[in-house]
């Protein structure tokens, strides 16, 4: 891990040094604006080196990026300013499912507005994940659509969230595992069927950790946070950088992730007008791609010049 990181940083340094002196590289930049290239490059470095928060407004969209050089670009962002989380027109999300199938009683994720949630940073709506009061403990999954990221080296999933009184460890009902309460990011590493992206009773495979790599971002429990009654600075950022070298090649052209939230409780007495024993508010999901080295099919001739 440490070595790979150093190799990446060294390669990047070599390319930055060579770019002004290499004739062919100038041609490959085409008409792209040089200040946005520098900006994009700086973001690659600051994300990889420092875990800096991605500002999606500063990134070019990936489908208009044709640079073969290091870049950071935006695949999508979502601030949930609508009614339904997933609709047919939306290229971003595939589905929302519970670990015991869809529409499970009192376990849910819904788009709610600020009058129900409290202060929001991005628009007037956000996602609220909740569990159910009593002994049951569940996970809720927001599953992305497939994306072709084969031309990139890393992808980043980032979101803002408010943890509401979460606990360090809870025990999942379906398998008895102890997991931290709250959100994480899972990446599909098998075929569509194995990951539960197709087929009957897909939720059983969707929750199978043999088919998904789990990424656990740093965890903030928010003991003093309460729905409708938290400070604006209760909003935290979670960011997961996924090295595509860890994702099987056949999955890189249809990369799928899910935001999984584990919770053992929800509203007090399962009454949405009451406070929450546990909840997670999520907003401003950002999905970005990073290219650290040139595309393999168009390498710079480092020996030239
Ligand atoms: Ca929003
Ligand atoms: Ca429960
Ligand atoms: Ca709690
Ligand atoms: Ca709890």
Short description:
By secondary structure, this protein is α+β, with helices and mostly antiparallel strands. Helix content is 18%, strand content 29%. The protein has helices spanning 2-18, 23-29, 34-50, 114-117, 202-206, 249-252; strands spanning 71-78, 93-98, 108-113, 125-130, 138-144, 154-164, 170-171, 178-179, 182-188, 212-215, 236-243, 257-263, 279-291.
Report helical residue fraction: 10-25%
What is the CATH C level class, in words?
Mainly Beta
By CATH, the topology is Jelly Rolls
Our count of helices gives 6
Measured by DSSP, the beta-strand proportion falls in 25-35%
Order of secondary-structure elements: HHHEEEHEEEEEEHEEHEE
**What would CATH call the architecture?**
Sandwich
Q: If you compute it from the alpha carbons, what radius of gyration comes out, rounded to the nearest whole angstrom?
A: 21 Å
Look at the structure and give the mean pLDDT.
85
Could you tell me which ligands this complex binds, including any ions or cofactors? calcium ion
Quick one: overall form?
A: globular
Largest sheet: 6 strands, antiparallel
Name its key features:
single chain; 305 residues; alpha+beta; Jelly Rolls; 6-stranded antiparallel sheet; 5-stranded antiparallel sheet; 13 strands; 18% helix; 29% strand; disordered C terminus; binds calcium ion
How would you describe this structure to a colleague?
- The protein has 305 residues and is α+β, with helices and mostly antiparallel strands.
- The protein has one domain: Jelly Rolls (Sandwich), CATH 2.60.120.
- Strands 1, 3, 4, 6, 11 and 13 form a six-stranded antiparallel sheet that branches.
- The C terminus is likely disordered.
- The chain binds calcium ion (4 copies).
- One calcium ion binds next to loops.
- The site of one calcium ion has 6 residues, from loops.
